[in-house]
């Protein structure tokens, strides 16, 4: 009986960024049990491969590709498509661990497998209509028996490709660039992935805050301030809300972090740009303008009052899922903060040829024009709160971008995966 | 363990629509309602959500008569409030619950659909009660009421300015008619006051209460049985009554001895502590002595970091949190701080980063007046001293330990906010397979496409990781909406399940599935309240609770696996409310409010059912004032004495924390089942939190009790390990008097929340702050508070304590068990550093210095040398002499490093040697190390060493720095201890005249180091020096001496560099002689060694090659290439190799074999299944060794070869030669070799250039070299080159399988050319052979430039050529020659780039032809 054990070298987080190297230890043991006679075991071959699968309910014009792929693969040893439901969209070159392995009873052989996660593959994503997932498939076969496979799921985080490659040298230290190249002086090569990480750090750094003036048709409600628009997984989205000098009292509000799953269809032009337009129309100005003396009153009104919902929305919202909620009753609050945590297990913003996954903050402000209790404050005596408070609600969406975090900082211990071949 | 989060919220508690200054905020006893007073109104608010319920405005007449509102107190039943005015009157308000009708401020949606609320969370489930507020009465007394406090459900104490305490009932205030008749009037001037209560003697009434003094601040605690009071003359007192009735006759007071500038006071009920804030900005905390009921000084809270002394002002306000775990302190000059029970600083706004524009000294933005903790301590209301809208609300999260001390056994940090949990999982070490020592073959080097078989299993390693993200878990809305806030939270040992209990019921969460589980039946959830604790035990949630339905106290267990429902739960009734619980293995210990500790045994029957039965009960009333004072307890098998324990022995010891004192209750003897409270022993006091380390796998610190005591630091109660020799013998009885355990204490920088015993590290959380903007008027101008996980290694602290107590064996055992930790060397370094700093900087003589024993201890570990030097480099230079007087001379350590081959460490020692020894010594050592580094090819290190050597100021070489003898501390204090002796040579010279010129002695030592052939050159500057130095000295004029010195500096500097150059040259010569050309290349690159100039200077002997063939062989060996001239009989193999390499797999790596064979078999299957037998054979071939190869017929081989060609659709006409070169020289290597070739050509070092060209099979460069040689017109060189080429061809054809066979054939015209030339020159050139090299160098440049003219030189037409192997190939040879000429002219076109690898088509063709020849021959055979 042969036992195959596979364990990832990174035992504390089975999470990899695209372009990172998956390292895995695969152990073949000829297990000896007391009851049956120990015998020499023999495996014809074993190979390891990393696959990305897709499972979708979208109609896919190139769906027949999978059949083609299956036909192609069907005759080779490892038939990856049949292992897991879903179509293989990315597959690395299979690596052969060994051929004709002989194991004495009790013998153990350990093989080391490493493979780059394809740089351009999609991240692991589990959405409404589409799923992307990665698996390492270890396949082996005894002579004259079926191929046996062991799969290890891994999670893949997307690291955005740098859009402008000419930015690359900016992040590289340029001190020694001028020296003539001597082939004996090996410069540490800065990988594209490393630069991408730096880039990510820059993108998600805090910039000048943006202010949004919230008002509805009855007047000014408050001012929202967001310190950055791009976040990494695990960070908190921190914003502040100032209800001072309001004309309409905000009684409570909730801020939700929502994931939008938009299908990419042949006609998605306006839907894609529509969202952009919505963001652009949101008035925003940064700290610099305050410092330079521009009055905050120059702020445009945000288009978020309830009436906005009456209009036929041209913007496709896609499938929404709420990940985190921050709710506050702010009747008595003058200044407060909004802290929305971004969980580590969600998928960052990404786009493939089938789906566009975006993130947004969804605000709901419950407002009331009742600034006092309806009765003027008496000079003496009791003043009781009224039984009812008429309220109106307004909603507002603010897109944010979420990027991947360093996988090592995410705690996700993995177990060892086993396969017994009798 | 409270940590603030975010900005403080600013809230308005004023009348609706107004903005007024709030004077005081108080929550009622159950913290559901909040009362706030402005000067003229009282507002009642609901605490969460913060919504107004009712206000009462006072009339102007009332304000005039009684003064404005100052202070509020609630009656404990929340039905009445009393407001104290600044004129000293008491206003009584009645709060009535309006039962009819629903709640208030119900939000009503408008009819328009678009304006309606959408989300579930916006519909507030909380029912805000309808309350009405009315003024009952205004009470004025004869004297002004100065303070009020509530002492029981019905009674209150009034303090008046006439220095009386009036005890009266709340109900008395209501009765309007008659005069107020207090139950008791305590005239404080009449009761005895003690300074220190000793033996019940009223020792002194003195100092009495001042004449005008009265009670300014008062707080009562039932557990203390008295009041903390502060008088208006700033004296602090403690007022106690003998019985709990406050009457003059039964009362006495205690002056707090050392506090005479008190401002405020506050009482901690649970830990029975009294805190007095002082004008001096300190807070003095006193405990109650159980034996005498007097005051016992505990500790002082004093902010020292980031503040100037005295800048804080008096303590303004003190407030213990509801659970007694933290004390909030604010000062008059601004600032807020948070301290743990026993004085660990948790947070201080004075260390926050407020930005550049805020000067905390002048104007602190946080000027607070009143503080009030809200529900469960999750919020702190703070009122600012001035301004309207002055109420701030700061949000806190707290450690789950504060409410649920049984959570201390886990390795996860769990913090609870009011509706969320913060979890930080995993240790500080990231688990990986394989650690720093073991890198995987392909992860470190360039990525290869192979899977590698590992020889042995890599062990589980770990790497240090930066702090991980907090996982934030929000409570599900369904649960949080009605059960806010979180009261208890618990995580299981694996960190996979979390349970949470709010106001009622509970919910739990699975980390893996990321799903919450709530009660399916909401009424079941509402029917019980968790109290006393919540914990996980083998998949069950165990809790103490109160059932609202049955009105009973219970223990409940719910399985995590199935639905949360009472039908799956297990219930046990207990007699009284559960106060605390804990588990150890399968035992559950429960403390109930009746003072009984019950021990239950739990037995897990299945995933869904559990069996719990009571083992015994124990009355612990005798050890505590009140069961509520028991902070935490556990049952354990920890024992005072060490006995070999069975693995599953019953736990028999109970450890209890009573008001901070740790009591251990043991069994009387083994026969007795129940522990005896009479045998309770007190182990420690001032303990906030304790941990037990049971049977751990790795760390030797087993069976320890860990205590954290706030300002007193961490303590560990450690068993003393016995030496094995002692253990084995039966002599244990002899040493029965020896103590078995020891209590060690050490300070900690952070508040420990988790101790990872295996990793000898504590984890904690620290408050950090970040400033978002500098906009001063916005509220986010305040820093944003954050939490950061911090860790601290404690290993060195424990080791130090043990070594100090001469328990080296224990220390060694512990250290040994921790050796695999990545920070172990660092811990040793810290150990050394701490002791060194302490002892070396101590002003007093140290009777028994610890440093020697510490050093001896570290010497036990292989990292000794490294530790010493690392430590030294992090300490001040002033302390070095002390260190090295103990650790050994740096020189000796340096040599030890060399012996151990730790060159980097040795290099670190150089810096120390440089500082402690004369420069000459450090220079000498550096030279020594440089030599070794060069030999070991540590180029980076050599580079640094050269920089080091060049940086030594030559002047310093003269100044001796024998400060080693100056060690005052070690040497017995001598009376004539010199203060500061100017050790400079100049001074000696000045005083004594030049006795000995140090320069001379130095220069001689240097020359002795030099190679002999350079002595001549060296002696020139030395003699100059010799002549100059005395002249400066004779003048005995300081000024002139320095002038001379300056002059000589330059020369010396040059000499230094010269000296270094000599070493480098010597090494380069060695490398060249050993044909280590690559190393030479590296050396030149890293060390800035000018190879070309050196080569041109270098004597001809070294740059000449005598035996080309052997040199080529040596070079091949060095480059790890296959031998150029394989032994005869391996022909087949060589041919095979050539074809084999065609497939693209680089030869050499043994690991590649497996994958190759895989490819082959796969490909073969695709191609033609009928070829299988052949394939099998071929596979065998891959695996088997040479002998089998020999047996194979060559025809089959070639057949294989063809098949591959077809398979990989390689054009059969592809040039083999280029491929072959590319095969055995990978790209990088080829580039390096070409670079070297260029250098050698530039330096006119023809021999090596020729050899490299051959290696690169670069016909163009060879022809260039030949031309250069010919142009040089030196017969000797030409002869040598000719001989070399001939020798090479000879060798090649002697060994038929040489890879150069084809190439060498192309060289024949050059040989011929040379022959011709030599003949043509004839005898005339014989004489030139001596100085040919000089000429050659002179001509070199011009020759290279004039290359186009070569055509004239080459105009010899070969007549006939007989190749050594006998084949007639004259026509092809001619072709070859043309080709070589052509390529030559091409490369002349761009002389700067001779390394171009492309070759002309004709050349390729020719190469192929020559290559094909032997193969054809084979086939024919």
From TrEMBL, chain A:
Protein name, UniProt field: GH17709
Pfam family, one: Rgp1
PANTHER family to which the protein is assigned, alphabetical: REDUCED GROWTH PHENOTYPE 1 RGP1, YEAST -RELATED
InterPro entries membership: Rgp1 (IPR014848)
Top-rank taxon, per record: Eukaryota
Gene Ontology cellular-component annotations: Golgi apparatus
From TrEMBL, chain B:
Polar residues bias: start-end ranges: 1003-1021, 1351-1370
Location(s) in or outside the cell: Membrane
Ranges where the record places region Disordered: 1003-1046, 1345-1421
Pfam families: Beta-prop_RIC1_2nd, RIC1
Record's keyword annotation contains Membrane: yes
Main location: membrane
Entry GO CC: cytoplasmic vesicle; cytosol; Golgi membrane; Ric1-Rgp1 guanyl-nucleotide exchange factor complex
Entry keywords, A to Z: Membrane
Domain of life: Eukaryota
Record's compositionally biased regions (Low complexity): 1386-1404
Biased composition regions of type Basic and acidic residues, renumbered to the chain: 1371-1385, 1409-1421
Record GO biological process: axon guidance; intracellular protein transport; protein localization to synapse; R7 cell development; regulation of postsynaptic membrane potential; regulation of Rab protein signal transduction; retrograde transport, endosome to Golgi; synapse organization
Molecular function GO terms recorded: small GTPase binding
Domain spans labelled RIC1 C-terminal alpha solenoid region: 796-959
Protein name: Protein RIC1 homolog
Organism: Drosophila grimshawi
Name of the gene: Dgri\GH16901
